[in-house]
Known about the structure:
This protein is α/β, with parallel strands linked by helices. The chain has a domain at 48-96 and 126-291: 3-Layer(aba) Sandwich (Deoxyhypusine Synthase). 47% of the residues lie in helices and 17% in strands. The protein is built from 13 helices and eleven strands. It has helices at residues 15-22, 28-45, 65-73, 84-95, 107-112, 129-146, 152-160, 168-174, 188-197, 207-220, 232-242, 269-274, 291-307, and strands at residues 49-54, 79-81, 99-100, 115-118, 121-124, 149-150, 179-180, 204-205, 223-229, 248-255, 278-288. The strands form three sheets. Strands 7-2-1-9-10-11 form a six-stranded parallel β-sheet, sandwiched between helices. Helix 3 links the parallel strand 1 and strand 2 (79-81). Helix 2 (28-45) crosses helix 13. The longest helix has 18 residues, at 28-45. It is globular. It starts with 14 loop residues before the first helix and ends with a helix. The model has no long low-confidence stretch (mean pLDDT 97).
Amino acid sequence: MDEVKDLDLSEEDTIETIVKKMEKMGGFQGRYFSEAAAILEEMINSKEVLKFLSFPACIISTGLRGVIKEMVKRKWFDVVITTCGTLDHDIARSFEKYVKGDFFSDDVELHKKDIHRLGNVFIPKKSYGLIIEKKMKEWLPEIYKTKKELSTYEFCWEIGKRLNESSILFWCEKNKIPMLVPGITDGAVGYQLWEFWQERKDFKIDLLKDEQLLSDLVWSAKKSGALIIGGGISKHHVIWWNQFKGGLDYVVYITTAVEWDGSLSGAQTKEAISWGKVKERSKNVTLYSDVTIVLPFLFYYILKRLES
C-alpha cells in the first residue's frame, strides 16, 4: 500500500514536477488528475494507437475552444466526435463575439435584450443564430455545386475551408482529421441543412458513410484510446465502436455528472468494461472535474512532456 505523501512545493517546481508529485498525494481528484495526465501522455505519444477525442458543444462557447483547437492543430487525435453545437459555436465565434456573463442573471431581462445565456456565457442573438444563418445560406449553395451527398466529416471539412485559423473546423480540414457529428440535425447548422433540403431533395448528409469510416478505422487499429469529455451521443459513439475491437486500451473520462441516476454522462470507465467497450486491462481513469479548469493544465503538461 502506497503512503499518502504531503505536497512539497517550491519555487523550482514546474507543471511537470507538480503533476508528478500529485500522483502521491493519495486523496480525491488530485490523484486522478495525475493519472489522467500520465495516461494521455502515453496514449498521445504512441504511434500505434488510434486516438479519439469527444466533447460536448457547450465548452466551445468558452475559451477552452482554443485548447481544443491546439490539440487538433498539433494532430494529437485522429478522430473527433462531437455534437452539432460545436459547429454552431465554432462558426459563430469565427465572426462574432461572445461575452462573459453570470449564472445568476435575470433570464427574462436577457431574453428581452436578445441575449442568450449558456451557463455564465452571454451570447447576443446576432452572434449566434443570425450569423450562422447568414453564413450557411452563403456556403450551402457553394457546397451543393460541387457535392450533393456528403458524410458529416466531409461536410465539416467543407465548413473548415471557409473559416480562419482560430477555428477547430479549419484545423480538422487542414490536417484531414475527420470530425463526425452523429446528431447533425440537433443545432443551428443542422436546421439550415434541413431548410436547404426543402428545395433540393437530392442534397443528402450520409450518416452511414460516417459509420463506415469508423468501422474501417476501428477494425484496422492495433490499439485505441480516447479522451472523452462529458457524455451524450459523442461519448457513446466512441465507446460503442471500440467494443468491436475488444474495447479501448487507453481512456480518460472528464465529467461532473454522477452515476447513480444511470446516465451515460456519469457512467465511469469501469461500467464500460462490463460492456466490453473498455478493456479489462486498459489504462483508464474517471476524473470528476469541470473541464474548463483541468484541461488547460493537462494540455500544457502534455505539451511540455512532448517537447522534452
